[in-house]
Design a protein that fits this description.
Shape: globular
Structural class: mainly alpha
Helix content: 55-70%
Radius of gyration: 19 Å
Number of domains: 1
């Protein structure tokens, strides 16, 4: 889940960069010319750190407190962020780390007695990166293409959610990220972008309710929180925050940068540890090497 910061982020999903090239990198972040991550905090750092925290809350609920649905309600807020960033980024990187992370987590699923399918969200990211440009080239052509492809993604979701997490529902937020990044170039007015955002919210809400069956109060909180997240995403821009970096205690700067720049590594590690804990804890949902396809 680690995007590039100009191409968008560093060539490595795991690296924090320092040195003499950083001042020029910091100056060029807003221009999309950055090839290495700056020493200053960026808008990517804040957004991805927030998404990582929300995701871990979601997974704590699933693995440690399965009866407490509020963890899952809060965790839903990270979903639009991750897929938005995939569409927003220029990177279409399908290098070894993301494939390795995918296979490691499939192995841990088998080891802990969880189903192999649907494949984890890393495979969803791979699918988005493979097809987002093809979809974007067509969906922004005119209204007919927008309607046709949107309906197609909805129908495909019925089947694809069986094979990878979120299925083609994930594409709605990725397309939104692409639209925000290329706002000046696409054939959409602002009202078209807002309408598509609301449509994406509706599809995601239906998918979420069918998956979790939240109560009325939980649905209201989910709706308000998700709409707020979408508002933030619609206004997302590439920025650096020199003053914030100087004012915030360095330990917090480091923590934000680690969360924002090592998300793939942290995603794989925390899930692997949670799965191991679940087996050792005696949770009946998990069992050593109980092989299940779906």
């Amino acid at each position: 889940m680690s995007e590039k910061v100009g191409q968008e982020a560093s060539q490595s999903s795991f690296g924090l960069y320092g040195g003499k090239n950083n001042e020029k990198a910091n100056q060029n972040l807003g221009k999309g010319k950055l090839t290495k991550l700056p020493v200053y905090l960026t808008s990517y750092d804040f957004l991805k750190a927030a998404a990582l925290i929300l995701m871990i809350i979601d997974h704590i609920g699933f693995y440690f407190f399965p009866e407490e649905e509020w963890f899952r309600v809060i965790g839903r807020f990270c979903v639009p962020i991750w897929f938005f960033l995939i569409g927003y980024a220029r990177s279409r990187d399908l290098s070894t780390p993301i494939w390795a992370g995918l296979l490691i987590l499939v192995w841990f699923n088998i080891m802990s007695g969880m189903a192999v399918f649907p494949l984890n969200v890393l495979f969803t990211i791979i699918v988005i990166r493979m097809f987002i440009d093809w979809v974007a080239d067509r969906i922004f052509k005119d209204v007919e293409w927008t309607v046709y492809l949107s309906i197609s993604l909805v129908f495909l979701a019925v089947f694809t959610i069986l094979f990878f997490e979120y299925g083609t529902v994930s594409f709605f937020f990725a397309i939104l990220g692409y639209a925000v990044r290329h706002r000046e170039k696409i054939n959409w007015k602002d009202y078209g972008l807002y309408a598509y955002t609301l449509f994406s919210f509706m599809i995601f809400s239906i998918y979420t309710e069918l998956s979790f069956g939240f109560g009325v109060i939980q649905l209201i909180v989910f709706a308000i929180g998700t709409l707020f997240v979408l508002y933030v995403l619609l206004n997302f821009k590439r920025k650096i925050y020199k003053e914030y970096t100087k004012k915030i205690p360095q330990i917090f700067v480091l923590l934000i940068q680690i969360m924002g720049r090592h998300t793939l590594l942290l995603y794989v590690i925390h899930l692997a540890l949670f799965k191991l804990y679940a087996v050792y804890s005696g949770d009946p949902r998990f069992e050593w090497f109980r092989f299940i396809w779906m």
